[in-house]
Write a structure and sequence with these properties.
The protein is of the alpha/beta class. It has helices spanning 7-40, 52-59, 63-66, 69-79, 105-115, 132-135, 140-161, 173-184, 218-228, 235-245, 262-276, 278-281; strands at 94-99, 119-121, 167-170, 210-215, 254-257. The longest helix has 34 residues, at 7-40.
């Protein structure tokens, strides 16, 4: 039996190969263009903020927010250059726990704070809570600036508490930025290269002494979302966020397996904290 390909069959094979090569070229081109855009366009254009100045440049025309006394006070202190980093010295540690929706980070953070006799700061501050629904009617840059402002307001509050009390937070700068990068990554999960300055910590925002992120499987996340009514997120967004968490600098985040019981996960975070931050905890 003759198995030689006829001309029509050869044409079909060549067509498939050419289509495959073209698709690969398109994917590479899209990847290159998107990574180039991360370098060519300021992060603020994506709704990612690296300074309080950038945040107020977006929000200063919204009087409903700017007229709030804590917000106006923060703005005045920024203008007067009175916002400074809190040095590691005679103070308690500042700890952040992050994770995707459905990872159990908030419940875990509350338990961890209780066991460490710490203060748990939840975003946003109470005086911003009435604006959460209203901000959903604003554009994306304003919404992201609002959430970023919440971080700075809580950070200034934490600075006062850290003189005598360990402070714990979730949904801080790492979480907000990873979520936005995940949304921008597209179907190909294209993130900025690891050396990109987009991962650099804001110079004027309180730096955590240690930051954790919980990694959970899709099955665990689905189970928790189902029992907590947490809004669902896609597997693609989850994977992109995990990739982003691993690329942040200062501080680099500590990965913790969140698939275990809350008691086991909390115990591991507590043990790592006590080992790494023993000097600060003894203050």
């Amino acid at each position: 039996m003759n198995h030689a390909m006829t001309p029509p069959m050869l044409q079909a094979v060549f067509a498939v190969q050419i289509a495959s090569l073209l698709q690969s070229a398109i994917c590479i081109s899209r990847y290159s263009r998107q990574n180039h855009s991360y370098h060519a366009i300021p992060p603020t254009s994506f709704g990612i903020y690296h300074s309080l100045w950038d945040i107020f440049n977006v929000l200063k025309e919204i009087p409903e927010v700017m007229n709030l006394p804590p917000v106006y006070d923060l703005y005045e202190r920024m203008i007067q250059n009175k916002i400074v980093q809190l040095p590691k010295g005679d103070r308690k540690p500042f700890i952040v726990i992050e994770g995707v929706k459905g990872s159990g980070k908030s419940a875990l953070t509350v338990t961890f704070a209780q066991n460490m006799n710490a203060t748990y700061l939840r975003a946003p501050p109470e005086y911003l809570t009435p604006f959460k629904m209203w901000m959903k009617t604003r554009n994306k840059l304003e919404r992201n600036a609002f959430h970023a402002l919440s971080n700075y307001l809580l950070a200034e509050q934490a600075k006062q508490m850290l003189e005598s009390k360990l402070v714990v937070m979730d949904l801080y700068w790492h979480g907000l930025t990873a979520y936005e990068l995940g949304r921008l990554s597209g179907r190909a999960n294209v993130l900025p290269v690891p050396s990109s300055p987009i991962y650099k910590w804001p110079e004027d925002l309180l730096v955590p002494d240690i930051a954790f992120y919980l990694m959970v499987t899709e099955e665990s996340r689905y189970y928790r979302e189902k029992h907590t009514n947490a809004p669902a997120i896609s597997r693609r967004l989850r994977d992109a966020m995990y990739k982003a968490f691993g690329r942040f600098h200062r501080p680099r985040m500590v990965h913790v397996n969140g698939d275990r019981s809350r008691r086991e996960v909390e115990a591991e975070i507590r043990n790592i904290t006590c080992r790494v931050l023993q000097g600060l905890l003894d203050n």
